[in-house]
## 1
Amino acid sequence: MRRYTRDQRIAGGKLQTSKTTTRIRRARELGLIPTREITLKESQRLDHLAQEHLGNSHLWWVLAALSDVGWGLQMPAGTIIRVPLEINSIRSIVG
């Protein structure tokens, strides 16, 4: 189940990532984005993981989209996060 199936509602419909989020989720479902799973530990945040694995903390929303966890940077310990194995698979979708 997706926590936020209508991302365009966030920020009054002004968030520019809603279409991209949909494309990322669809590509994941089709197996076009190879990922690995990380189980979050206490105090780990999506922006820190994005910096570590994608080289850019601003791409935290990519991890959220791949993992269907919503839009919070801080997730509870034990949350499963999907991380793309290579950034190029994301770049081809995000542009």
## 2
Amino acid sequence: MKTIKSLTIGEIAIERPASIALFEKYQIDYCCGGKQTLAAACEAKNIAVEKILIELQNIDSEDNIGVDPFQLQPIELMEYIQANHHEFIRTAGPVILETFSKVVDQHAGKHPFLTEMSTLFYELHVDLLQHMLKEEKVLFPAIRQLMGAAKPDDMKIPDGMKLNFPVSNMEVEHERAGRLMDELRRISGNYALPEGSCITWQNLYTQIDAFEKDLHRHVHLENNVLFPAAISL
């Protein structure tokens, strides 16, 4: 039997959804990095694994059970991802870009890194929009077809096709999105606000932080729950 130290970060996040907040707190990558063990993840972050184990033990036991969306079957999970996480990106992205525009106009002269951040977030948002279309038009229909639940307008995939290659491509794009988010955090000094920053700048960092946390959950559900189920079809 595996000990919790030898469980992967993704497995822990599935079995104990409340652990996600703990991983966010210590910036432990449980989505794209979900295949690494807890021990390896802590070593990479120079965090004592015992410290994380103690905090995991303090998580409310009723939150340690895999609950929705982790108990959803693949068809339901795809609908959940599309209705919640995909819709969030499409809704929140333009709002953040508009806030960036205001902050850059007012403060980029003194803080030029804001222009670089704005460009990076625009690139990230465009990438994610294209990525989600691939999932919604190609990968998700392919999964439905293999499960015998194709919709009338779904693109048909060749008989006998396996999903390893398209899933691998989606994981590569997830890693790129993660790198862009990491770069945003690095450039901003971990979203540190300068003294006397205006409320709009404060709101911008709050919006980006919420976007990042939602993206982590989104990628976790796909990389560590949906995709393994799809590959096994």
## 3
Amino acid sequence: MTTSSAGAAGGAGVADRTGGPGAAALLRGFVSGGLVGAAVACFVVGPVTDRMNLLAVGGGLIAANILLLALPRAVRRRSTPPRPGPQLALGRIESRRALSSESGDIPVEFVLTVAPDDAPAYRAKFTQAINLVDIPDYKPAGIVVVEYRPDQPWKVEIVTAPAAEWVRRAREEAVDSAPESTLAAPPAEGCGFCLLMLVGLLLGAAVVVFAFRGDLFDDDGTPNAAQSTTRTTSSSTTMGTVRITGDVMLMPGQMRGAAEQLIALMGTDKATELSIDEDFMSVAAPKPSDPGLVDSFRFRDGKAEATGPHGTRRPDEPLIDLRALPYDRMLFLVVEAKATLGLAPDTWHISFHRVAGTDALEIIVTVGDSYGGASLRADAEGNVVERSPRR
């Protein structure tokens, strides 16, 4: 028995059922982007300018955006019939291409002729994860059972364990190849929706910033100096007074990223010692196979590496959770130490310790120059609790 493919015209009809967003949807995307952009700008401008009422305005804009997106969808759901569910059909494998050479399940790109029982046949291109040992079962010209959506014909998936009736049909029936011109594809107009949303987002943010430019900038267009000096907890303002250009580890996300690389290498996220310098991070961690033994590791130049044995540890010795540390506060602590400890330092060092007799964590930031050093102590949340300036 043969399942005939449709002609080019009929197959193209199936593949062309991909209507993109209309003018109303594009306008809705533009307005939605504007609301989101304005809301985000309100959340940023409000604290910077001490206009906390902008936070409420931003929340209102987010609520309006949710309403804008939800109402048309609800109306459309009531006025349109329910979407047809997934359907089964026979398919002919036209080509296959493995996208990876790893073991286990790997992504395979298929081009299939899909032959619905009640619609013209067409081609579909999709990617599906297939176990490496099962790939020989999916040879070109082979017949398989597929699941597809009539309203979105490009969404196709091979059924790896079909019912007995479909197994029989796949074994006994043949499927002719559909023309390449019948290849189903998702709507290309979706990029226009995203582009308009992005434009709206930028315009919305620009409107809010422009409206409060007097509070954000001086008359000459430079950031307000008074705000830069009073908000010492803001990394963007304090960096203007203390130069940290050469400090690699203070770059955004660098410490957390270094910690994650070290965790992957060590096989544990617990450490007995941790210290951070300008361009590297050092860790001592117990061996996962023998927690009584401790090895040393280091992150430098973007790479984590083991540096050798470190020593031993007592079973009751407290450990440092590398994923629970306030890395985002380290920049503030270093800048605070450089600015408030009575010296013009050219080096800094951060170490983490457990307070003797307790499980409390303390952070020590030490800065120094050619004549000595000074330090400050912070708690586990990165709040300064004690300064020890040079006298």
## 4
Amino acid sequence: MKSNAALKTEIQALPANALIEASAMYRQKFNKLMTEMAFYKALERMTKEQVLVKVSKGVYARPLITEYGLVKPSQEQIIATYTRDNKGMVVGYVLYNRLNISTQISKNTVLYSNAIQGNIKTIGNIKIERRDIDFTEEVCSAIAILEVLENYYNIQDLNYFALIALFENFAQNYDEEILNKVLSVCKYSKSTIAFLRCILDYYKVENNLSERLSALSSYRHPTMEEIYEFART
């Protein structure tokens, strides 16, 4: 009973709409106080008592209570939970929108985060993929351009002027150590690496990306001259 009371106190001390990764909370704070089965049964009881709401498998929240009833965390709050404080970043069309390279909207949102248990977690229309890296500003910039290059041929309504500005900015601030760190954790195709090499070579930025490629292979990607031509048409 004391362990149940301690769990309830822990949860009630959280701010409204705070997300709870059940497995992480159990492992970090309650594995010496109660069995895992007892822990999850306690969560079920608190859900029935409306102390908690279940957001998805293994994820709960302390709900915001209003005069109209319980309010679950919004999509923005969920995204913030898994991305703030260098915990992750959005990719896909949300990223492309932020980079101004596309105005297309997707019904689904994809995140990379170091703050989930397991490799993939789905919360509503939000898919979270685990990446074991500290998402600093520099790391996020490197991942952003790699995501754009990886999906170049599939991005709808591509704004080539914004794309060129993205390339120029990345080339000016290129950090090979950061890129190598990202590539050790995030997997991208050889064509994407070759595309990035093409960009850096065009802007005369020294790089070692050829070491990741085969001199005997041909990789599909546009040239910078073609991209500038697309921007003019």
